[in-house]
């Protein structure tokens, strides 16, 4: 390996980081710095791709240094997810309004998340049929066969779980364990624990107002401290996006993407239509969809580049509260539930497309009965996925197994999985933000002055 070239790559990354830092010192807006980071990352990644090739020794040696910035940033975001969710929801209860409207709020958020996932399934089915996608046309190499075997192994003990068991897994038997993120449903567990403490606070406030005042003062102090940490971490967003997208572009296998280009194109058409559905829902609720796009853009861009809904959560919540005018409680519930329930991209479009592609390989006709069954299963599984680990792979396992389709064929798309997962994650996050904004508007709790205010005067990092 050429050490000089490795150092050159690292220096190149540091120079681009320096450019973003200069923009920060010159008070360039957060959104402009984020999109500049994206552009610089794409350009730098393409240079590395064409200079070395995606599998070169020099490039592979450079990846850990890129990860130091990109993955390091994602880890910092993940660090603040649990404290942010917990204290924000608990603080929302001290404002009383969430206690009065908790049932309606939670029902609205869950209804939108699961309902849009059913719509996502319809879109996935329609686009797959329109493009004529068929799993039998995809060549299975060693990587695909290995991935298929891995999926079958991971599916053991998953497909036999009943929905009530999956729902039980949401409950926090040990909330302190959930604070460590040890379970796939830990975030939901923390939400439930915070809600119980919130209702307990309301009871104390009625019976012992003096004690409640002390509790509220402590909660407000901790909330201010956690939000200070959030703001510090979010300032690093442009640098994180730069490093993540540069690494992604530099190491992408464009040959594999080209060979499966039809599926990639179909996937992004379906994801694009689903995003338009989100904008239609925003419009129906009486809000300007273009304002939503403009103000949610930075959060959705980070979701796209990082492929991490959990990592995007702090940015998601701050965007909802500081730019879209959603109250803290609603923003946190929508963002947190959206991590595991009703993911439009991963649990809606993706398993629906796979099922329609795979069904003909085993002689299953794509008739009305199959389509209706598939939509219902996708909608139900989008809720149950949280109890078994979440993500597109487990959503596919649940749906394919429920339809008696071969699970191993879900590994056919391993070579383009990262590229598609970028779009899926962005749509997942948009779905949760749509649920938050719509619920706040319908309940009359949306601050329309913030929603319609100038983006130049708003920031998620101030």
What do you see in this structure?
- The chain is mainly α and 462 residues long.
- It has one domain: Orthogonal Bundle (Proton glutamate symport protein).
- Helix content is 76%, strand content 0%.
- The protein contains 21 helices and no strands.
- Helix 2 packs parallel to helix 11 and helix 17 crosses helix 19.
- The longest helix has 37 residues.
- 48% of the residues are buried.
- About 2% of the residues have low confidence.
Biggest pleated sheet? none
Q: State the end-to-end CA separation.
A: 43 Å
Number of strands: 0
Please count the helical segments: 21
Low-confidence stretches: 141-145, 386-390
What radius of gyration results from the CA coordinates?
22 Å
CATH topology: Proton glutamate symport protein
According to CATH, the homologous superfamily is: Sodium:dicarboxylate symporter
Please sum up the structure shown.
By secondary structure, the chain is an all-alpha fold. The chain has 21 helices and no strands. The protein has one domain (1-452): Orthogonal Bundle (Proton glutamate symport protein).
Write the layout of secondary structure elements.
Elements: H1 3-25, H2 30-52, H3 57-93, H4 97-100, H5 102-131, H6 142-155, H7 163-168, H8 175-178, H9 186-207, H10 209-234, H11 237-251, H12 254-259, H13 261-284, H14 289-306, H15 309-322, H16 328-337, H17 344-358, H18 368-384, H19 391-402, H20 417-442, H21 448-452
